[in-house]
Write a structure and sequence with these properties.
mainly alpha; 6 helices; 170 residues
Length: 170
């Protein structure tokens, strides 16, 4: 096998850059279905999809909720699930549009980027909406229940700091 020769010819470099960009874009497109997922554990974020509020759902069994509190939490969760399902359906449509664009002889990378960007705002809006609802729900908890949540958040923050100290470059 011959070693790769560096060519200073502009069209070749441009072609290689375009190929690299197309490859990066197609890798990004391939990850869209996974990125479009919402709900507990989506994207394996350190703080969950709803951040602080998600801790309330994870701690549900430890909170000794009243019937009213349990019903309110169930309503928040049901709403989030139905909105998440709608987002996933929408994301499938966007992925189909991206695949159709990639199938053209000369895909327009700006169109692909705009389609991918169109997924971001609705996902972020849902995430903050659910978080805000859960934080509002937190206000209905009694002092003991709130302390369970606070203790779990402190424990999680300590784990995060420990992880960052080990794995994040200074």
């Amino acid at each position: 096998m011959r070693p790769l020769k560096i060519v200073s010819d502009f069209p070749v470099r441009t072609g290689l850059s375009a190929l690299a960009l197309a490859l990066a874009t197609s890798i990004g497109v391939a990850t869209l279905p996974a990125m479009a997922q919402s709900g507990p554990g989506a994207h394996h974020r350190a703080h969950g999809p709803a951040g602080v509020g998600m801790g309330i759902i994870k701690l549900r069994s430890q909170l000794n909720l009243t019937a009213d509190q349990s019903a309110a939490l169930d309503a928040i969760i049901a709403g989030a699930k139905s909105q998440g399902a709608a987002l996933r359906a929408s994301a499938q449509t966007v992925v189909a549009q991206i695949n159709a664009e990639l199938a053209t002889p000369q895909p327009d990378l700006r169109v692909i980027a705009q389609l991918r960007d169109s997924l971001q705002l609705p996902r972020e809006s849902l995430r903050t909406s659910v978080r805000d609802q859960l934080i509002g729900f937190y206000g209905t908890l009694n002092g003991t229940q709130q302390q369970v949540v606070i203790d779990a958040l402190r424990k999680g923050a300590a784990r995060h700091a420990e992880f960052a100290a080990k794995h994040v470059a200074p």
